[in-house]
Amino acid sequence: MAAQTTTLEQAQTMTLKPRPAWYETWLRFSRNVPALLGLIIIVALIFTALFAPALAPFDYAKTNLDNVEQPPSAAHWLGTDQLGRDMLSRLIYGARSVVFVIAVVSIISLTLGLTLGAVAGYFGGIVDTVISRVIDFLFAFPELLFIFFIAATIKPGIVGNLKSFALANNLPWLTEFVRSGYADYLVVMIALSILGWGGLARLVRGQILALRENDFVLSAECVGVPAHKIIFRYLLPNSLAPILVSISMGLGGIALAEGVLAYLGIGLQPPNPSWGIILSDNVGRYWREWPEMLWLIFIPFVIMAAVVFAFNFVGDGLNEAFNPEL
Amino acid sequence: MFAYIIRRLLWLPVLLVLISMVTFWLGLYGPGDPVQVMMGLRTNPKIVEQVRQEYGFDKPFLVQYWNYITNALQGNFGYSLVKYQGQRVSDLIAKRLPVTLQLNLVAIVWSVPLGIALGIFAALYRKSWLDVLLRVIVILGISMPIIGLQPVLNFLLSRKHEIGAVTLGPFLPPGGWQGIFAPHIIQPAFILGLGLLAVYTRQTRAAMIQVMNSDYVRTARAKGLKEWTVVMRHALRNAAIPLITIIGFTLAGLFAGSFLVEQFYAIPGVGALAYESLLSKEYYIIMAFTLIAATVYVIVNLLIDIAYAFADPRIRYK
Known about the structure:
With 326 residues, chain A is mainly α. Chain A has a single domain, classed as MetI-like fold, CATH 1.10.3720.10. Chain A has helices at residues 8-13, 21-30, 33-50, 52-55, 87-123, 125-139, 143-168, 172-179, 182-211, 215-222, 227-238, 240-263, 275-283, 290-322. Chain B contains 13 helices and 2 strands. Helices cover 73% and strands 2% of the residues of chain B. The N and C termini of chain B lie close together (7 Å). Chain B has 2 domains: 18-74, no CATH class; 89-311, MetI-like fold. Chain B has a two-stranded antiparallel ribbon. Classes of the chains: A mainly alpha (326), B mainly alpha (318). At the A-B interface, α6, α7, α12, α13 and α14 of A face α1, α6, α7, α10 and α12 of B.
């Protein structure tokens, strides 16, 4: 085998192919084992959520009173709960709720947070004052309690209005929508979004404030680039890194809040599947014995924790990949 | 600086009026008719109407709000409607506040110094296995779902385990409140402190890394100072400035931050009262709680900004 040789001339003309910045970032990210693990968990979660009907061996809500609190077996891999419902199926459908809530809440808060934050930072003046004061206002409440407060207070309003609207306009699908409990999702999503956008908007505003003094913005303004283009083409892409990190960490928080709301009975209600409901159902009769504890509480707890960890690890990994000096 | 403080102080009442109005509005129209809540389901509509007039719930929104807020400013936050019927809300809160403060104090005492120490270590041994380990612990601390952690901890620590012939435990009581020195406080204070520990470790680490790279640390080392002096005297003091913010929010959270833990461990604190009231639509208690919490928060926020200016003379507010 001929050894590969490099002559001096060749060496002088050799160029290193520049690697794109995102590739460098990915390289740093992929060296971070916990972050990669987190990414795998998130992908698995989304996969589970998308194909829940195909993956779940049983109907998540179907009770079977002859088969109560059974330990894990060939038929029921994770055992059954006190109503004989298959725990594996319940957990799989719970993943669906979490992903659904996370997706909608993050889309709403992202849209609001990016737009309002960028507008406040770029235009300044009275617009900035109004938006910043609204955020101040939102943050003045104790966070989780505020979500509960909103969830508890808007719920009768939303459900009642939807119901009467459906009756008045003779919309059977809407009546069905309310009756089947999907309005609960709406309540949870609104409550979480109201609080979610503020933090993001504040972050984006700070980023834009710092960036807008740069010469490339000045030159863009000079040649007459419209404001929305400057914001979305010039400013936001440059502040992507901290935004991505903050979103990734925020998603874990949304998952956590969804679980807590459901656990306390203000979020999703029992016909809907949620990990919070699974936990509150199973904690109900308190002093459980050891083996039941395992599949009724330990496993849901570990799964829920793993999902929140995953989002936080990915956020942490992104943070490090974007800021190698840290 | 002085003008800045004045401006912020002028803004303070506006923000508080807004906050109280929105809470009042949500509380009034949200969870259901307070009179209906107070009277229960089977009631005589005539009596309901009478009570409504007696309490002033038939008046226009702004009148009700004005009455409420003038009373609140004099320390009268109304009365409990359901569970503690007839008791003053201010008395209820005053009675429970010491419990919450003690619980939070214990949580802060174990977690904050430890968090700062771990943060310093993580920054000094940056990129070592210790740093990685600490980071994993921090993230675990931030993301523990308390709704699952509580039953698991309670199971492990508060009941008897018979392993073969050996009987272990129970190590700790499952819940309840026996004062600050009873073992009942260990579990809730541990859970409460986890989040604080994580936040302080992370922030201290970030601040220390920044400071350790600065020129004056190099100068201090070049002078031949001992590493201990460099870290504790020169670096830590400057790294402590960004910590002002989280210390402030920790203090603001004293009042409202622990309601989940209080609920789970049956601790008769302010948080548990607030949560209980939220579910039973104890409208005056929710209002009082939200108002006080928001006021504390807003004031702490102002104090943080002022403290910054004193801690770091380079900061000048316009």
